[in-house]
Amino acid sequence: MRDQPLGKTVSGLVSASRCGSVPSCPDTTATATRQPVSATRAREALLLTCLDLPGLAPLFEDLRAVTGLSVTLLDRQGRVLTTSRCQRLCTALLRPHPTAGCVCTRHDIALAQRLEADAASFTAPCPHGLNDAVTRVDIDGLHVATLKAGPFLPGPADRDHFDALRRRHDLAEAAFREALDELPVIDAARLPAILSLMESLARQIATQASAELRARDATTRAETLAADRSVDVRHLQDRLIRLAAHVPGVIYQYRLFADGRSCFPYASDGMREVYGIGPADVRDDAGPVFAALHPDDAARIRESILTSARTGAVWHEQYRARHPTKGIIWLDGRATPERLADDSVLWHGVIVDVTGQMETERCLRDIQNRYRLVTLAVRDGTWEFDLRSGQGHVDDRFQDMLGYPPSQHDMTVDEWLSAVHPDDVHAVRASIRAQWMVGETVQIEYRHRTAHGGWTWIESRGRVLERDCGWPVRLVGTNRDISDRKAIEAALQESEARFRGLFENAPMAYVALDSAGRIVDLNAPLCQMLGRPRAEIVGQVFGAFLAQHGRPTGIKRLARILRDDQADIVLDLQPIDGAMVTVHMVGQVQRDDDGAFLRAHCVLHDITDHARLEARLAQSNADLSQFAYAVSHDLREPLRMVSGFLGLIEHRMGPAVDSELAEFLGFAIDGARRMDRMILDLLDYSRVGRDGDEAGPVGLADVVAEALANLSATIAERGARIGTAPDLPTISGRRSDLVRLFQNLIGNAVKFVPADRRPRIAIRCREAGAAHWRITVADNGTGVPPEMRDRVFGVFERLVAENEVSGTGVGLALCRKIIERHGGDIWFADADDDALGTQAGTGAVVHLLLPKQSADGADDATVVRDRVTLLETLNTHQVRIVARLKNLSDTIAHRQADRTTVDGEIEFLIREVECYRVFVHANADGIFGFGLSRDDQDPRADADSLVFSVHQLHRTVEDQDPCTPAGQQSIGRTLSALLGHVRRSHAWLQRRRDDRLLKHGIAGAAHGPVSDPPA
C-alpha cells in the first residue's frame, strides 16, 4: 500500500460532508427534505456536536498507520464527519461521481441501519467490490455515528471486475488503476484484531463525547444557577456530583504549574474507584496519584504529560496502577490540554478502569498461543477456503500427511474435491451440505489421494466463519490422518464378524441379560432349545421361560447371577412344545470402569438326559438299598442259627471235645460272628445319608465331644491323650453321620497305635479358601503307606491281618461316604512333627475338607448336582481344546498348512483356552469342594500354564514358516508341550471323576477320556 496525502480532496470531502454537500442520490435527498426532523434526529445532532472532530483526526491517522486502513467517522445519513487520509479510489474517483457517489451514500446508510439492528461489529462488501470494517458509536445510549475502516481488498484484485466498474462510470483509466493499486489487501486473520481495535476506539470516542456532553450540561446548569440566584448552589453541586458518580471511571481536571507543582482542581467520586483515593486528597497536591502508579509505568506517564503540555496534543495513555483493594489494575486515560493565562496547563479528561478489557485481550493472545501449540503437538493440519472465490489454503502439516512439498499451500475447492476418493465424493458433498446448513461445524471422514498415488484416511473438522444470506462462504478447519484408526476399525469389524460367526454356530446356547433379567442377545442354539424365533425372545424376561413348577426357585437362582459377579446354577426351561429342558447355566457379569452393571453373559448346557439318568439312578439306588437291607436281615438269621447250634454242640460234647475239634468249633463260631459284624457294618454303610437326623447346622465341637464319650472306655483302657482345637466350626450336615465319622477316625487312631506306645491324637482346624474348612486328625501310630492311601477307603480293605487289629475294613469306606455326602473330601497325607512331637514321617494324618455352612441353605442334592454339571462343563472345555489341537496337528502333519490357516486355528485355540482359564478360576472352590484334593495338580495353575503355552505357540508361528520342515518341527515341539498340559489337566479330572460320581450316587460322566492326537 502507498500512503499518499490526498490534500484538498480529503479536506474538501470533509468540508462538503459537514456542509451537507456530499454527492448523494437525488431521491434520497428529496426524501430527507420532505421528512420532518424528529426529536431523536435533533438529539443526534446535539450529540454530534459533542464530538471532538479535530482531535479525532490525529487518532485516525494513528489507526491508519497501525492497520493500513483509512478511518472515517460518518453520521447515520452517510455524511463524513472526519477522516484520516483516504484511498483515492473512493475520495477522488467514486464518491465525487454523480452515480457512483449515490451508490456509496446508500451503502453507508445501509451500514448504519444494519448497525442499528445489530450492535455487533462486522466487515461487509460494498457494491463496488470493496470491503469495509464498521462499528457503531453510541453516545449517551444512542447510535449517532458509524466508524468505518476501509476500503480494502480481501485478496488479489479482480481486474476484470474493476475494469468493468471503471468503464461503467467512465473514469480515467490511469488514475483508476493507480488508485486501485493503492488499496490495501487485508487477510482474514487480521480482521478480528482490527475490529477489536475499532470497537475500543469507538468506546473512547463515545466516552469523550459523553464527558463533553456532561460538561456542557454542567456548564449550562452552572450558568442557569448564576442567573437564578434563588437556586441553592450547594444543592446543584450535589446533583452534579451524583451525575458524575454515574459516569464510568473518574472525570477530572489536572493542572500542571510552571514551577512543576500539580493538582486535581476537580475530580469526581470515581477517583476512589480508580485510585482508591478521595478527591479532596488530591485537590491541592497530585502526589498520591503518582505514588499509586506502577513503578514500571510512572516515568512514561510523567514524560507523556510533559509532552502533551509542550505540544498541546491530546493526552492518551494506558498504564497500570496499584489499587489498595483491587491490586494491580489497568487504566485508560484521555484528556485535552488547555494553557491558562499564568502559563499553567489544565487538562480536562476521563480515566476508566480497563482491567477487564486488557484481561480479555490477554486471554485472546493466550488462546491463540495455545492453539498454535496444540496444532504443533497433535500434528493436525489446518485449512481455509473461501467459497465465493473458490480459493483455499492448507498448511505444511497437511501437505506432509499427503507427501507433498511444504511450498504447495494453495488449493482450490475443485482441486480438493478432485483428490477425494471417487467412492467418497458423493458422501462428502452430502455430509457437508447437511451439516453446514443446520449448524456452524462439520466433521467428515474420507480418503485423500497422496503424492505417490495412494490413499490415506483423513478426518476433517471445519467451522463456518462467515455466511452470506444464510450460505457459508468462508470456512476454516483442521485435518487429521486417521489411517491407523481405520485399520484398527477394519480389524475389529473382521474380528466381530468372526466372533459373530463363532457365536451363532457355537454348539452351546448363549444368552445376555440386562440388570432387570431381560434378554438382550442370544444365539441360534438357545432359540432351538426354546422352540421360538429370535424376535419373540429378545426383550422378554428370562424367568418367563422357566418351567412353571420350579419358577420361584429358578428366579431366585437366576438372581444370584445378576447379584454376584459370577455364578453357576441349574434351571428347568419350558419350551413351546411342552417338553421340559434342564440346563446348567454359567454366568459372568460385565461391568464398566465405575463398577456399574452392563450385562450378564451366560452359557447354557443341556443336561436333560443327564438329569433324567440321575433321577433313574437315584431310584435304582433306593431300590438297591432296600434290597441290601432286606438281604442283610435275612443273612443274619442263618448266621445266628449257625452260631447257636455250634455253641450247643460244644456244650453237649463237653469233655469229649478234643483240642483240635475245639479249635475247629472256635474258628466256625468266630467266622459266623465276624460275618455278622460285617453285615452290620454294611447296614451302617447303606444307611449313610438316609437314616438319622435331618441336615442342619451342626457344631463340630459337640460332635467330637459325643464321639469321645462313645469311645471313653477304649480311650481310658489305652490311656490315650487327645487334643481338640478350641475353634472347631459349625457346618451344615447330619449330626449322627458326623458323630459316626469322628468316632471311626478317632477309634482307628487309637487302635493302630502299637501296644508299647501311648496313643496321642490331635484334632485341628483351619480355613481352606473362602468356602471350605480343613480339619486334620493326626496320630502317632503306624501310619498308612503311600501306596495304600487310596485303597484303604474301599469296602473291606484292611491294612493288617484280622488277628493283629480287629475290624471289618468298612470303617474308612464309611467315613469317605459320609464326607462325600456332605460335599467334601477325605485323604491321607504324610505325618509332620508339629503338635504331636513325633518324628516327621511317622503316624497317620487324615485331612477332611468340609464346605462351610451355606448362606442360602441349599440342600445336598442341589449342591451335588451343580458340582456334577461343573465337572461335565470342565470336561467339555478340555475335549474342545483337544479337538482344536488335533485339527492343527493334522494340518501340519499332512503338510497342508499355510500361515492363514494356522493363524485362524490358533485364534480359535486362544479363545478356547482363555474361556477355559476363566471358567477354572471362577469355579475353583467348587472343583476342590467336589473332591479334588489339594495333593492333586492345581487346575488353576495348569490352566494358566496352558494359556501361556498357547501364546508361546502363537509367537512360534509368527517367527517360523509353517510350510517349511524347520517351521513344522518347531511348531510340533510346542504342540507336544500343549498336549502334555491337556493330558495332565485331564488326568487328575479322570482319576477322580468316575469314583466320585458313583459314590455320590450319580451316573458316570458324559465324555470319555481324552485321547492323544495322531502322531
TrEMBL record:
<dbReference type="InterPro" id="IPR036890">
    <property type="entry name" value="HATPase_C_sf"/>
</dbReference>
<dbReference type="InterPro" id="IPR003594">
    <property type="entry name" value="HATPase_dom"/>
</dbReference>
<dbReference type="InterPro" id="IPR005467">
    <property type="entry name" value="His_kinase_dom"/>
</dbReference>
<feature type="domain" description="PAC">
    <location>
        <begin position="442"/>
        <end position="494"/>
    </location>
</feature>
<dbReference type="Pfam" id="PF10114">
    <property type="entry name" value="PocR"/>
</dbReference>
<feature type="domain" description="Histidine kinase">
    <location>
        <begin position="630"/>
        <end position="854"/>
    </location>
</feature>
<dbReference type="InterPro" id="IPR013655">
    <property type="entry name" value="PAS_fold_3"/>
</dbReference>
<dbReference type="InterPro" id="IPR035965">
    <property type="entry name" value="PAS-like_dom_sf"/>
</dbReference>
<dbReference type="InterPro" id="IPR036097">
    <property type="entry name" value="HisK_dim/P_sf"/>
</dbReference>
<feature type="domain" description="PAC">
    <location>
        <begin position="563"/>
        <end position="619"/>
    </location>
</feature>
<feature type="domain" description="PAS">
    <location>
        <begin position="266"/>
        <end position="312"/>
    </location>
</feature>
<dbReference type="InterPro" id="IPR000700">
    <property type="entry name" value="PAS-assoc_C"/>
</dbReference>
<dbReference type="Pfam" id="PF00512">
    <property type="entry name" value="HisKA"/>
</dbReference>
<keyword id="KW-0597">Phosphoprotein</keyword>
<dbReference type="InterPro" id="IPR018771">
    <property type="entry name" value="PocR_dom"/>
</dbReference>
<protein>
    <recommendedName>
        <fullName>histidine kinase</fullName>
        <ecNumber>2.7.13.3</ecNumber>
    </recommendedName>
</protein>
<keyword id="KW-0808">Transferase</keyword>
<dbReference type="GO" id="GO:0000155">
    <property type="term" value="F:phosphorelay sensor kinase activity"/>
</dbReference>
<dbReference type="Pfam" id="PF02518">
    <property type="entry name" value="HATPase_c"/>
</dbReference>
<dbReference type="InterPro" id="IPR003661">
    <property type="entry name" value="HisK_dim/P_dom"/>
</dbReference>
<feature type="domain" description="PAS">
    <location>
        <begin position="495"/>
        <end position="565"/>
    </location>
</feature>
<dbReference type="Pfam" id="PF08447">
    <property type="entry name" value="PAS_3"/>
</dbReference>
<dbReference type="Pfam" id="PF13426">
    <property type="entry name" value="PAS_9"/>
</dbReference>
<keyword id="KW-0418">Kinase</keyword>
<dbReference type="InterPro" id="IPR000014">
    <property type="entry name" value="PAS"/>
</dbReference>
<dbReference type="InterPro" id="IPR052162">
    <property type="entry name" value="Sensor_kinase/Photoreceptor"/>
</dbReference>
<dbReference type="InterPro" id="IPR001610">
    <property type="entry name" value="PAC"/>
</dbReference>
<dbReference type="InterPro" id="IPR004358">
    <property type="entry name" value="Sig_transdc_His_kin-like_C"/>
</dbReference>
